[in-house]
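Lecture notes, continued. The same structure-token format from the folding unit now serves as the input rather than the output. Read the line below as a description of shape only.
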């Protein structure tokens, strides 16, 4: 983590989709920023869902070209979606927590204006978070590619039988495993699904990826952490209804013989935090540590 100073003049406000109850918070943020002589742009869907007018609007495909900061009001799911969509533009993101837990949206809505005042004055730190790129090949042909900020998951659906996977890392055979699936998580994603599956928590700035098996048939099959520059190749050896998910969203149903290549994406996501933000304080509060 390192501190940087920058004046933000054009700011986009993006709210949780289909959440009209957030209208008051979004309007409060827009009004505050305008009073600070900041040019405010409302994301088009946010303005529509919250029935807000009086501010210029931009589509998600325009935000990266016309603003130098995006403020995201919602939960971690909203932040994940926005981060993936704006990754190519690499504009910094600020998260205001309107959800339940909020590992990514660390500014409390009750204090958001005070925190924003400090952030606009340059009192903030920035973190670079890695993304994963996932590509699926079938019969040697690429049939899907996408990004994930939390995790790439290959797993079975419903109550079907275990699936069998072959895992290779940087061209070296690691193992075959029979399980409910496998989670490949960024450090950001180690506090999400991977944590529930028994994986370790990594500091968000580590250059690492974790591989966390989901209910493996062999109990000695444990989570491992590898360098983020590694290339992980997973072959679906057997599975009646396996699929690949990116950040919790089903992308593709898989067939036996399909190969999933997961590696670090060339883009990163910049998250801004108020001065004094502590990853360990956040973990203690969110996970109810003593």
């Amino acid at each position: 983590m390192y501190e940087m100073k920058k004046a933000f003049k054009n700011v986009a406000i993006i709210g949780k989709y289909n959440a009209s109850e957030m209208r008051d918070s979004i309007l409060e943020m827009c009004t505050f920023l305008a009073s600070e002589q900041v040019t405010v742009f409302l994301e088009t869907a946010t303005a529509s869902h919250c029935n807000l007018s009086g501010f210029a609007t931009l589509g998600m495909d325009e935000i990266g070209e016309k603003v130098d900061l995006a403020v995201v009001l919602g939960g971690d799911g909203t932040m994940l979606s926005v981060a993936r969509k704006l990754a190519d533009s690499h504009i910094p993101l600020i998260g205001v927590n309107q959800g339940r837990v909020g590992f990514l949206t660390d500014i409390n809505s009750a204090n958001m204006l005070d925190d924003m005042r400090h952030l606009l004055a340059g009192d903030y730190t920035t973190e670079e978070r890695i993304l994963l790129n996932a590509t699926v090949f079938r019969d040697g042909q690429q049939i899907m590619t996408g990004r994930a900020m939390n995790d790439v998951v290959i797993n079975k659906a419903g109550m079907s039988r275990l699936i069998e996977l072959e895992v290779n890392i940087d061209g070296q055979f690691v193992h075959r495993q029979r399980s409910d699936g496998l989670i490949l998580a960024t450090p950001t994603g180690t506090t999400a699904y991977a944590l529930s599956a028994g994986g370790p928590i990594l500091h968000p700035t580590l250059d690492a990826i974790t591989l966390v098996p989901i209910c493996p048939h062999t109990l000695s099959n444990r989570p491992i952490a590898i360098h983020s520059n590694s290339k992980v190749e997973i072959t679906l050896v057997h599975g009646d209804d396996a699929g690949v998910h990116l950040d919790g969203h089903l992308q593709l149903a898989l067939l036996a013989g399909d190969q999933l290549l997961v590696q670090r994406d060339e883009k990163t996501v910049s998250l801004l935090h108020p001065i004094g933000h502590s990853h360990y304080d956040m973990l203690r509060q969110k996970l109810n540590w003593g």
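Point for the exam: The mean pLDDT is 92.
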